[in-house]
Write a structure and sequence with these properties.
This protein is α/β, with parallel strands linked by helices. 56% of the residues lie in helices and 11% in strands.
Length: 393
């Protein structure tokens, strides 16, 4: 087993009916037009502000393509369908953009429900959460900056830390590995500290808690190396989800507004190099480190496949997985799974209005990332042509 045939659209779209392919083709054609995304984003904000009913048009279109459902039950049903193709799922409650303690408690409780629902399901081996979904972003920013907290803020932060630990503890008890998402650099320092504390507490016998590193940041490779050194001394397992990065424009704008150097690489070449080096670093110490390679990049995916072959690692190695977002890069996900590798889909879910910020980000990402939408459309077009030639369109 060597090179993965990512161009095999029969495998990539096996779960899609002809009607599904038509809808996906239309959706990506719309997303490809930046003016449509900008206009749609503005209209959605207005509709939400005036409580105009939008669910009827959003749920069967962009929501259905990028989300697993509105409830954990609907998400579990989606996970079952993915499992038919040997693809695992990570149910991801995608609530964001709120700052109230009531909201944070609600998110924590929902993720605890996800953990309970996932327990015992071999096709749902991971849990995930976004720290700013359970702790106020402004508070994380103050902690990252090393600012003194007021007594009320200290108490607030303690409550946030308790929520953070409650999720990690519940996952470990349920025998699930839990991934802590990475966020913007101005709040990431606090997230680093919180995640490291949980890794120190729970990763003595296995890599239960995973940290996420955004490799477009110029400091993350050095950060990983220092963490390995510290944790090796204490015989603590490390787990890393490696991503390229999700906040590029915001990082650059903020750095420019504060008249300081950008914390991210100036070009994709630097990011790609750091991403691949991080993968090689983790696989070189796979007896002490678990790796989730979260990427929509064929070259990086093939590089990990080659690396595993070079090291003689089983495609189903328990400490290595590939990951993609639901509704994107199916040619990577399903061809890797078909070849016997461990692959997971991040499957966002939640009420339509709740996940709107997530859906807007997905649309913007597909518009802004060079070649992203064009690649999706090309794969769909190739599958349509294949089905027409086979007389099944």
């Amino acid at each position: 087993m060597g090179s993965i045939e990512f161009s095999n659209t029969a495998i990539a779209f096996a779960r899609y009916s002809n009607a599904d392919l038509r809808k996906a083709r239309l959706l990506f054609r719309l997303i490809q037009k930046s003016w449509v995304v900008r206009f749609g984003k503005g209209m959605l904000r207005v509709a939400l502000a005036i409580h105009f009913p939008i669910k009827w048009i959003i749920k069967p279109t962009i929501f259905k393509h990028f989300c697993g459902g509105e409830t954990i039950q609907e998400c579990l049903s989606t996970a079952e369908k993915l499992a038919d193709y040997h693809v695992d799922s990570i149910p991801d409650y995608s609530a964001e953009g709120h700052d109230s303690e009531t909201h944070f408690e609600g998110v924590k409780n929902e993720i605890l429900n996800v953990i309970a629902a996932s327990a015992g399901h071999a096709d749902m081996p991971y849990a995930v959460f976004k720290p700013s979904g359970i702790i106020r972003g402004g508070l994380l920013e103050k902690v990252t900056a090393g600012e003194m907290l007021q007594p009320a803020e200290e108490a607030e932060y303690e409550r946030g830390k308790l929520r953070f630990e409650a999720l990690c503890s519940a996952a470990v008890q349920a025998k699930l590995r839990i991934m802590v998402d990475a966020e913007q650099s101005w709040i990431q320092g606090a997230i680093d500290e919180l995640t490291e504390a949980m890794m120190m507490k729970y990763n003595h016998d296995a890599p239960w808690v995973y940290h996420t590193v955004q490799m477009y940041r110029t400091d993350r490779l050095e950060y990983m190396k220092k963490l390995f050194s510290r944790f090796d001394e204490k015989h603590i397992y490390t787990g890393f989800k490696i991503v390229r990065g999700a906040y590029m424009e915001r990082e650059r704008l903020r750095a420019a507004s504060e008249n300081r150097p950008s914390p991210i690489y100036p070009d994709k070449v630097g990011t790609d190099k750091a991403f691949n080096e991080a993968m090689l670093l983790c696989t070189g110490r796979i007896d002490k480190t678990a790796l989730c390679l979260a990427t929509h990049n064929e070259e990086s995916s093939q590089l990990l496949v080659d690396r595993m072959l070079e090291l003689g690692l089983n495609p189903k190695h328990p400490d290595i997985c590939f990951a993609q977002l639901f509704g994107m890069s199916d040619h990577i996900t399903f061809n890797l799974a078909h070849a016997g590798y461990s692959v997971v889909k991040y499957v966002p879910y939640g009420p339509v209005k709740t996940v709107m910020p997530y859906l807007i980000r997905r649309a913007e990402e597909n518009t802004s990332v060079a070649g992203q939408t064009g690649r999706e459309l090309l794969n769909i077009a190739n599958e349509v042509s294949r089905r027409k030639a086979a007389g099944i369109w």
